Amino acid sequence: MAEHLLFDSLACAKRLREAGFTDQQAEALAEEQQHLLEGRIATRADVESLHQDIEALRTQMREGDAALREEIDSLRTEVREGDAALREEIDSLRTEVRGGDAALREEVKAGDAALREEVDSLRTEMREGDAALREEVKAGDAALREEMKAGDAALHDRITELERTLQADMDTKLAALEARLMARGGAALVAALGVLFAALRLTG
Predict the structure, then answer these.
(1) Domain count, the chain
(2) Where are the alpha helices (DSSP H) in the chain?
(3) Residue 29's domain spans which residues?
(4) Residue 7: which H helix or E strand, with range?
(5) 10 Å Cβ neighbour count for 146?
(6) 3-class DSSP state for residue 191?
(7) Position 140 in a domain
C-alpha cells in the first residue's frame, strides 16, 4: 500500500492566494501539485521494495557466484586430474619407448654380431677354398709336368726308334746297292759311294 508524501497543501494554497489566486484556484493547484509529486517521487514502500529486489538480486548473484566458483573448482580439479593422468601416460609412453629402444639396440647388436660371425665364416671358407684351390692347382701342375715329361720321354724314345729303323733301312739299301755295284765291277764307284754314305751317316 502506497504511503502519502508529507506535502503541505494548505500552506501551498495560502501562498497561492497571497500571490493573487482565488481560493478555488489555489486549492485546485495545490491538489494537482500533490498528485504530481505522488506520481513522480518514490514512496518509502517503493524504496523498501526496491531494496528487497536488490537484496534478492545480490543473493542470487552470490548463489550464482558460489555455484560458478564450485564449477570452476570442479573444472580445475578435473584439469589437474586429467593433467596428472596425461603425465602418467606420457611417462608410460616414454618408458615404453626407452624399453623398445633398448630392445632394438640389443637386437641390432645381436644382428651385427651374427653378421660379423657370418662374414668371418665366409672369409674362413674363402681362405680354405683358396688354399685348397692352390693345392689343387699345384697338384694339377705337377701332374701336368709329369705327364709332359712322360710324353717327352716317349716322344724321344719314338724318335730314337725311328732313327734307328731309318738307319737300318738305309744300311740295308746301301749294302744291296754295294753288292750290285760290286757285281758289275765298279770297284772305284763303290768306294766313292762308300765315302759318300759314310759322310751322310756322320751328318745324320
Answers:
(1) 1
(2) 9-18, 23-40, 44-184, 187-203
(3) 9-88
(4) none
(5) 10
(6) helix
(7) no
Question: How far apart, in whole angstroms, are the C-alpha atoms of residue 8 and residue 203?
Answer: 189
The three cell numbers of residue 98 are 626407452
Overall pTM > 0.70: no
In a domain, 156, yes or no: no
CA distances from 152 to 8, 138, 148, 149 (A): 170, 20, 6, 5
Per-residue pLDDT 10s for the chain (204 aa) are: 344 445 677 888 888 889 889 989 988 888 888 777 766 655 666 667 767 877 887 788 788 888 888 889 999 999 888 888 888 889 888 888 888 888 888 888 888 888 888 888 888 988 888 888 888 878 888 888 888 888 888 888 889 988 889 888 888 887 787 777 677 655 666 566 666 667 666 665
Whole-angstrom distance, CA of residue 162 vs CA of residue 181: 28
